[in-house]
Amino acid sequence: MTTTSPTLSELIDQERRLTLPRFSHDDALALGGLLVELARERRAPVAIDIRRGAQQLFHAALPGSSADNDAWIDRKRRVVERYAESSYLVGTRFRAKGTTFEESSRLDPDTYAAHGGSFPVAVESAGVIGTVTVSGLPQAEDHAMVVEALERFAATQGA
């Protein structure tokens, strides 16, 4: 799967469009299952993580993934929790200003990574309540896999 990098406006639009009417434990399981299905179809060596607040609701590690992917998940997820935007959008905002997240955020790069793959789980009338993260592919592909799964999932909720 080859993916081009989305523009800043495309990333912003994705987050606006992918606000859900609700998100329960069962929804996390369904979304996680959808991500596993997409990853298996593509033979993608990824780890997948879904959280609501501090609680991990879903985790899967597919063949070819490693503990390093879990470390990347944590670093990307922390960016979403801090900025309430996708890790890819945050990194893209810094690049649009002619700098990088690592150079200008003043955050520890061993703790935070503004690389694609972590996306906010936003619920209407509640805002960002969690995260969905994929790690194991190039950042544009990690991000695209999450967005594709959220688009399919949102369609089942009538969002």
UniProtKB/TrEMBL annotation:
InterPro entries: PduO/GlcC-like, PduO/GlcC-like_sf, YBR137W-like
Top-rank lineage group of the source organism: Bacteria
Record-linked Pfam families: HbpS-like (PF03928)
Signal sequence bounds: none
Family: Belongs to the UPF0303 family.
PANTHER family for this protein: PTHR28255, UPF0303 PROTEIN YBR137W
HAMAP family: UPF0303
Name the UniProt record assigns to this protein: UPF0303 protein SGR_4687
Native source species: Streptomyces griseus subsp. griseus (strain JCM 4626 / CBS 651.72 / NBRC 13350 / KCC S-0626 / ISP 5235)
